[in-house]
Structures are given as C-alpha cells and as structure tokens.
Write a structure and sequence with these properties.
By secondary structure, the protein is of the alpha+beta class. It has four helices and four strands; from the N terminus they run E-H-E-H-H-H-E-E.
C-alpha cells in the first residue's frame, strides 16, 4: 500500500471539556497518512485516479473548525471517517495535536493517533 501524507494542518477549533476551551477555542494540528494504491494515477499521470490531497486538507480543516466535541479522540474519529469517504483511500492514520491543552505542568504537546481502514 502506498502512502500520501499531510503534516501540520492547522485549524482553530472549540473542542474540549472545559468551558474556556469551548468559548475561546484553540489551535489544533492534524497529521494524516492516507493509504491507497497510487499505481493507476502514476501510470496515466491522472489526478482523478488518486486522492486530491488539497480537497482532503480543506475537509479536515472544516471538521476541526466545525461542531465542537469534548474529546480529541472523537475529533480524530470524525477526521478519519471524512478521509475514508474518498474513493481509493483504504486506510487512514490521523494524529491530532492539542499543543495548548489545559495542563498545569510544562509540556510540549498532547496527541491522539488512530488508524482506521475500510471494513
């Protein structure tokens, strides 16, 4: 299986369990690795035979900017399901970063990473 990766997609969302997170929002960063067969696209040099990663990026940002959820686990699941709607994408790895999580000790990042595939 081939991989197409998008790293560092940034969007402002209002996800979290605390009122301040919901009211003020914060930046979320998303990394994606899409699993698909790129051979048909490469053979014909045809965008229609692969995943259009520009469109995927826009859709993922829309999910992050969309309806708030409590958990980044839920956000990662919604992103994965949006990616799997693209024909040809048979597997997706999603990593959601929450670098401004409300933690009281010094830290660099909080992430949740999930992998989903077509059943």
């Amino acid at each position: 299986m081939d991989r197409v990766a998008l790293r560092g997609l940034k969007a402002r969302g209002h996800h979290g369990v605390f009122p301040k997170e919901r009211e003020e929002g914060q930046t979320f960063i998303v990394d994606l690795v899409l699993g698909l067969d790129t051979r048909p696209a490469a053979a014909d040099d045809d965008l229609a035979k692969t995943v259009h990663y520009g469109i995927v990026a826009e859709e993922v940002v829309a999910v992050v900017e969309g309806e708030p959820v409590n958990l980044i686990e839920t956000l990662a699941e919604r992103i994965a399901q949006a990616c799997l709607k693209h024909e040809g994408v048979s597997e997706i790895e999603v990593c959601v970063h929450k670098p401004d999580a409300p933690i009281t000790v010094p830290f660099d990042d909080v992430t949740v990473t999930i992998t989903r595939s077509r059943v």
